[in-house]
Amino acid sequence: MGASLLAIAVDQSHRLWLTHRYREQARSYIKAFEACDFCAPMWRI
Q: pTM for the full model?
């Protein structure tokens, strides 16, 4: 018949957590890339 509402809620909560985690990692990666003197000119191309 399908997954229970609890299972759906747990899966949705886990997906939201992962999305938040990946966004934070991407944000720190971009900041580190911008701070790199060698990479900065390539970033602005």
A: 0.40
